[in-house]
UniProtKB/TrEMBL annotation:
InterPro entries: Asn_synthase (IPR001962), Asn_Synthetase (IPR050795), Rossmann-like_a/b/a_fold (IPR014729). GO terms for biological process: asparagine biosynthetic process. Residues 121-238, 251-347 form the Asparagine synthetase domain. This is Asparagine synthase-related protein. GO terms for molecular function: asparagine synthase (glutamine-hydrolyzing) activity; ATP binding.
Amino acid sequence: MQGADPDLVRRAIDTGNPLPGTAGFAGRVDGALVRDILGRYPLFVEDRVPTAPPNWSPDRTDLEEPNSFPAGHRRRDGEEPQQLWSLPDPEPYEHEREAVSDLVDAIGEGIAAARPDDPKSVAIAFSGGVDSSVVAANFDAPLYVGGFDGSHDREAARTAAAAMDRELRSVEFTQEVLKRAVPEVARAIGRPDAMAVQIALPLYLVAEQARADGYEYLAVGQGADELFGGYAKVARAPDDPRVDADTVRGAQRELIATLPNQLERDVLALRAAGLEPVAPLLHDNVVETALKLPADSLVDDRGERKRAFRLAAREFVPDSIAFREKKAVQYGSLVGRELDRLARQAGFKRRMDNHVTQYIRSRVV
């Protein structure tokens, strides 16, 4: 069982509690496969003989025909997966002060639970945004940022690290390195499509350098945008066609439901680079608190996103960082731009459908 004590998982099964106080889990317990509600640990199955227990592994490359095991499900031998858990739908806080106070406590609990036994084994994936800065503020570890020369992320990380008086190690990407890493990442995550590879590449390349420097874990700020209303499409609900929900809180839940797919990608990329992720903002206590935030604590009346999280972040980082906006990693690192350039140099022109995806698939063959 990855991520949690089997007895705790058994209690979660018996009580139906989807958030029993873990940072996720996946594996086999009492003759059945289980995976937590947010899919924070990858799990893959392969059915070779329908009546026999399936082959399974946390590493998709161990199996010939891996299929992702659904989050929040249990599968007994000889049966189909059955959903065990659903996200709770609690009543929202009435007072923002209480919400922010509870969120500060929950973040602290998530940090404490995620901290490895050897503090010197951890490096921090750092972009200079509020998410990674909150994580960085709670670990005495070097900060790593990656990107091409002139990228937004490297400059944002430099100014944020200076404001926090922290050591920053900058990993400069090049087209040669990107070209080498594209098939490695696509194979590791099992998704040779443009968006998935663009997002995974910066994590992979930063993790490679941290691993070369002797670290075993990479602490990340994953999950904050989904939990706390960080996306424009959440702020614009119900008018944004990219979400089905007709409320901000509904859109938040819709985005949280995408986490299993995203986290699988990120964890596999980091593990392929030789590091294990540490994601304190995805601890059950943080998730439970986020689900109780009212709409105006996710997006305020001025359109500021992640309001409650930013207010809580002030307990850990300067205001200049707590209220800073950030670009998505594929754009902030310029990986998206440079991957497009690699594709066109290889003859995959923009007039072609999904030209970057076609390029990636040509490299994986």
